[in-house]
Amino acid sequence: MRVVEGTISPATGVLGLLASPIPQDDKLGEALRALEPAALAALLDRIAFHRIDGLAYRAVSRLPQRDLDPWLRSALKRRAQRFAAATLSQALALAEVLEELDRSGIPVVVMRGVETVETVYGEPSLRPFEDHDLLILPEDEPRARQALERLRFAGQSRTLFRRGGVLLDLHTDPLGAGRRPTRQAAFPVSVPDLLARATRGRVAGAPALILQPEDSLLLLAIHLVKHSFDRLIRIADLSHFVFHRRGVLDWSVLGRRAESCGAAKLLGWGLQAAGILGIGVRAIDRPATEAAGALERHLMARALALRPLPWSGEILMMLAARRLGTRMRFLLDAFWPAGEVKPHRWNRTKALPRRVFDLAVSGTRQAAARRRAR
User: Fold this and answer.
1) Domain 2-372: assigned CATH number
2) CA separation for the pair 180, 328 (Å, rounded)
């Protein structure tokens, strides 16, 4: 396997030039000079929708003054500064949590968030996030809850905890299987194995376990597909990770681990998406896409054009499941989320009409928001 620098997909337009891990100064300057003044506000809205404000400011800050409207440069600078301040504040709170968990003897992995900022992007302004995703062993959950309560975090649900503006999501699996149990059945990622392979390190200056790069990349790819390729920043996470960690990734190990948990197609689709920002991985993304059916090809074509259909991630994950029975259970779980209702069959049946309505409304809103951001 090898990582190559390719061409940024024309479908991404200016956004791809701004978000790529490979500097595109000449093409970016030319594209920005061609924009009419009235188009700048729309561009800023699209940047905000895809949450690449920090990446955009870093890209435009390399350009000569003549290539960029001063208002756009100033607007992006203010947003990047806000992101940096928020990240630093959140990192302080996270460090307090990690230190308390360490004192309690609870091994923990920080998924995405501050960990991605530090190890992938390297600057606090480049990657905004809304919460902290912490992965622990299932047997440590009661003690972790107690540790958070000692720090005055209030439970919002079984896994969500809040203290002021700090939101923690306590995971005992990396796929959100507490709410959607069939995810773990379709893609059995072993948490004990993840943590056993991890090494001790620091996140936000506090003790934490650091996943092996192959595990981190696989989880980023699954996370991207799970969220239906909804924002360019998630694609950028994968693209930047591959670009900056290409020298340490063991592609044969990555392939075996993806195959062992049934996620080879998800990995292939994720790496295919990373390619639209100019980062290609040879001989690992192709098998998954060549074997795709018509529906998979259509959904991926929309995603690669930054026009993903609502719920396309759920559909792709269902299609990627190895067995027909697992696919059907995955589909039913989308309409009857077992983690959201009581286990009695009648309770799940009563939830169906409301769930269908919620899915339709949410999908309509997602499509409308994406149309406004074009």
Assistant:
1) 3.30.460.40
2) 13
The 10s digit of each residue's pLDDT in 263-321 is 999 999 999 999 999 987 765 444 444 456 899 999 999 999 999 998 899 999 999 98
Tokens of 105: 């003897």
Tell me how far the alpha carbon of residue 84 is from its chain's centroid: 19
Cβ atoms of 100 and 147 within 8 Å: the answer is yes
Q: Quote the strand ranges of the chain, DSSP E.
A: 2-5, 109-111, 132-135, 154-155, 160-163, 166-171, 199-203, 206-210, 279-282
* pTM to 2 decimal places: 0.88
How far is C-alpha 217 from the chain's CA centre? 11
Distance, CA of 56 to CA of 368 (rounded, Å): 24
Distance (Å, whole) CA 145 – CA 317: 31
Q: Cα dist. 146→106, 132, 140 in Å?
A: 11, 17, 10
Most distant CA pair in the chain, distance = 66
**CA–CA separation, 351 vs 374, rounded Å?**
35
**C-alpha to C-alpha distance for 330 and 184, rounded to whole angstroms:** 10
**Residue holding tokens 């027909």?**
324
